[in-house]
Amino acid sequence: MKSVCNVAVELIKSRRAHSSATARRLGGEMCKELKTRVLRMLPPSCHGPSLPQEDHTDVAEILSCTVKALKEGHVVGVPTDTIYGLACLAQNSEAVRKTYDIKGRNGHKPLAICVGEIQDIYKYCKVKVKEALLGDLLPGPVTLVLERSEALNTDLNPFTSLVGVRIPDHAFMRRLCQMCAEPLALTSANISSYTSTVAVNVSALVVDGGPVGDNSRLGSTVVDLSVLGKYRVIRPG
């Protein structure tokens, strides 16, 4: 069974044959580009924004470093309210391709997007339900399948007119989306066909928020709301 860090280490190494890895810094040695560095913070069970401890990196620094990596086109490992995920900027076509390469994912399996606020959904999706329903479901461990809008990167899931959208009930992830000011493409942090990851335990470029979820290793519940007046549960979470 592979952890998110194992996946990152194995596949980042395979990418190094194709691209140079230049070490970068953010406030000294805090952030090194996709090398053997885990940025640790308190787990989300501590409620609200994580507070730094002696052996944990300040959350503001972690956010800044993660945004920097994403803006540079990298794929990063992140905690969510369900399982660990691999995230990249959804509007960056090359980063989306890297995510598929890292996962070993079938190119016809879609990636979901993650945003920070409900109003962001209206920019990238055509919403056919009342906003009150969105507010009842999000933020939370739910992925809503909606019709995509023209604003979403056409290279993201070009084979379908639909897209899954998430707002995790996780302060770090919501703030990360807000700081990026654009959607993240998000998928579970595992090689395709392997079990999803709920904890980080070895060194790699990831944000370590401690164990997440309830260790059941289930992702979000996926609900199709793309058809007016109807809904369909695609996958229970």
From TrEMBL:
Residues 60-237 form the YrdC-like domain. One of its GO terms (molecular function) is double-stranded RNA binding. Belongs to the SUA5 family. It catalyses: L-threonine + hydrogencarbonate + ATP = L-threonylcarbamoyladenylate + diphosphate + H2O. GO terms for cellular component: mitochondrion; plasma membrane. Its EC number is 2.7.7.87. This is Threonylcarbamoyl-AMP synthase. Cytoplasmic and mitochondrial threonylcarbamoyl-AMP synthase required for the formation of a threonylcarbamoyl group on adenosine at position 37 (t(6)A37) in tRNAs that read codons beginning with adenine. Catalyzes the conversion of L-threonine, HCO(3)(-)/CO(2) and ATP to give threonylcarbamoyl-AMP (TC-AMP) as the acyladenylate intermediate, with the release of diphosphate. Participates in t(6)A37 formation in cytoplasmic and mitochondrial tRNAs. May regulate the activity of some transporters. One of its GO terms (biological process) is regulation of translational fidelity. InterPro entries: DHBP_synth_RibB-like_a/b_dom (IPR017945), Sua5-like_dom (IPR006070), TC-AMP_synthase_SUA5 (IPR050156). It is found in: Cell membrane; Cytoplasm; Mitochondrion. Pfam families: Sua5_yciO_yrdC. Keywords: Cell membrane, Cytoplasm, Membrane, Mitochondrion, Transferase, Transit peptide. The keyword Transit peptide applies. It is an enzyme of class 2 (transferase). Signal peptide: none annotated. PROSITE patterns: YRDC. Its main location: membrane. Interacts with RSC1A1. It is a peripheral membrane protein.
